[in-house]
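Run folding on both entries below.
>entry_1
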Amino acid sequence: MSNDSMVCDLETGVCGISDDEEMQIIDLKKEEKKSTLYYVTDPICSHCWALEPVLNRFIEEYGHYFNVEIKMGGLLASWQGFSDGANGIQKPSDVAEHWREVGVYSRMPIDGSLWVDHPIQSSYPPSRVFKVIQREYPGKEQAFLRRAREAVFVFNQNIAEDEVLVAIVDQLGLNGKEIVDAAAQQSAQDLLEEDFEMTARLGVRGFPSIIIVNKEEQGIKVTGARPLETYVQALQQILGETPKPKKITTLTDKMKEGNLLFSKEIEVLYDIEKANVKKYVQSQLQEDTYHVRHILDEMAIQRV
């Protein structure tokens, strides 16, 4: 028998002698994403909480075009010398009304009364915990940020306090006390300062800010919570072509993330009217896998 290699051609369907070399080196590594999406935010940024539905949809559909890097912006170092005249905020109690307005407008539930009863003195403690988790357990930091936001906006918990932070980190299956203790060290503050430096380099002056940068280090910055189309247009400008969306994950898989999922998030993610959310959830999830909650006049579902 001949030693020639016999193959059936994939394109023509014709079988015959192969022209390929006996052995070839191949590289199965996926092509690296060419762009970076910098998300500059803060754990107590109310407009960042309002952006969650749109940002999650954008990453779900177009995340294959970029790597996401979350940077802490340092919204509140302390109340000493703090002033936000644009929003009429001079003291902690002023934040309560601003937060409630954002919650009503965005339909992402916000209580806000902690600013009167038990105000946060600085956003740096949860930001440092974020940085420690990002360093020690990469991939878990986004889950921490989501849980921290649920705690402060929805459940009115002071996420600058150690016991609250420990409980949130414990929920992630990590050692909360160990991580919160590490976040109190100078090395954690140094990590935070690195984010502040990068934030300044990116020209960020407000939160949320999304900056999409291509491999040539050219970028487009979008400041504030904007419609989905704005971020898609920014990505299109960076790519120089129309980006193609991926199929969005099913509601069943989305629930595996373990977060509360609010009606507004379901509406945005799956293009559903508010009146049809309950019926959609019932059609997608088994009855014994979730339960429905009503929080601050908004429907939410949670995994059992």
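>entry_2
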Amino acid sequence: MSAFARLSDNGKASLFMSASMAMFAFEDAFIKTLTRSMPVWELLAITGLAAMGVFWIKLAMQGQSLWTRDLLHPMVVLRNIGEIIGAFGFVTALALGELATTSAILQVLPLTLVLGAALFLGEQVGWRRWSSVAVGFAGVLLILRPGTAAFHPSMLLAVMGVIGLTLRDLATRRIPKGVPSDQLSASAYGAMVPAGVLLAMLSGEAAVMPDPTQVGLLLGTLVFGVLGYTALVAASRMGEASVVAPFRYSRLAFALVVAAVVFGERPDLPMLMGAALIAGAGGYAMWREAGLRRKPLAGAMRPGNGPLT
């Protein structure tokens, strides 16, 4: 029996989550490399079309439809808008700024979800998670350092990406349960195509005919993105959220290594300190939220807490 087979479900899920984050870090490196020779709008449109095709194949293999009227639900539309804003902000930040800095700012997403859920969805948030939000935002300010020579406008695009992804995930919580996840993913990626065309009209940038190198990079982006998504789903289904969720922050570690090896980036000490604050606060917030979600279930399973009590 292999060492992997002897692992518990939580151990396997943690490995899958770490592998998923590594795949996403490599995907980001492919995207950043492509932005050097390809307009952002074209990259969004091509990857959106290709990824939509992948999810369409998955839906077809499951006997499900790519399009249903469920996709006209206001929350689905809002989710797609958030996906477009998030993708544009993140990809443009990668094009203009550093991979390490952009990845670090992206990791504040779990904390903005806590804030958004409290402000817009009426969820109860205790002082511990509010404290983690404050610590995480302090980390973001330490990275941005507005008003100093270290500040770069591209960092605000990364913040814009986080806002878009927060909108996406908050809207997802209000989508009817019956809508398949693969259909939502296909819809979101498909929305990138007209969004890319609109962006092209506004920017006036001409399309670039991909050469063999760019085609290879595009394929790498697609492969690592799909593999990362597949590993993420496997981790989420196999392990307990309170155990697995903090491993999402391994993406930051992978991104720092890739940024240093591939792009020669050398983050300064304040940036590393800010990233550490974000990772620590976000990891705690995810662990705390997963634990709170598990308590009602544990209470329902205790003797004396049946449906008639």
